[in-house]
Amino acid sequence: MRVVAFGLLLVLERLAVGQPVLNYQPITGEGRVKWVVFSTVGPPSLVGGVISAGFGTLYNRPSEYGPHWEGFGKRYGIRLTGVSVSNTMEAGLGALWGEDPRYFRAAGQPFKTRLSHVVKMTFLAHNREGRTMPAYARYVAIPGNNFLSNTWRADSEADAGHASLRTLLGFLGRMSGNAFDEFWPDVKGRVFRRGP
Q1: What's the DSSP call for residue 21?
Q2: Residue 15, class by beta-carbon neighbours within 10 Å (0-12 exposed, 13-18 middle, 19+ buried)?
Q3: What is the pLDDT of residue 22?
Q4: DSSP 64
Q5: Which of 31, 142, 144, 146 has the fewest other C-beta atoms within 10 Å?
Q6: What are the counts of helices (DSSP H) followed by strands (DSSP E) for the chain?
Q7: What is the pLDDT of residue 156?
Q8: In Å, what is the CA distance from 128 to each residue of 22, 23, 144, 145, 148?
Q9: Domain span at residue 118?
Q10: Sorting pLDDT into bands at 50, 70 and 90, what band is 193?
Q11: Number of structural domains, the chain?
Q12: Do 152 and 78 form a contact (C-beta atoms < 8 A)?
């Protein structure tokens, strides 16, 4: 397991070598707070919570919450607490280590390059100079939140296996958020275009 983790870290270090973001402005303390708030209760996160709690309620997982509105509310609340803890941990640790949690688009690049950027920036962050680096704070925050949340989750999903699955889903969720940030402005511009 250690060999795999070390190998993955070497791959991420190699991926991290790149050009800085043009006109990069380091994130401020106020910017970190805004990022935490928007990433936790902004429209994309709230919609994601509805979808997640909706599927959990539809399939009654975990069964302790039940397949009704009260169960939906519990599932939604559990997800919201997890997201808020994860985002706060990432922003806080990132401040200590000089990591910027924000996602910067690769607009104007070919689609394949943009898609690659979405995936790559799931595991990388920008440092104080705008250069990419492994997102160490994210590597701590997403698993840390998911294992910590075992203390307040229903017994049927409060174990290492479920926490590991939630960690994987957390990184997939980050990737989905990156994709939304990358492509939604283009979609919105085409769908809601005004005038001729």
Answers
A1: P
A2: middle
A3: 73
A4: G
A5: 31
A6: 7, 2
A7: 95
A8: 13, 12, 24, 25, 29
A9: 2-191
A10: confident
A11: 1
A12: yes
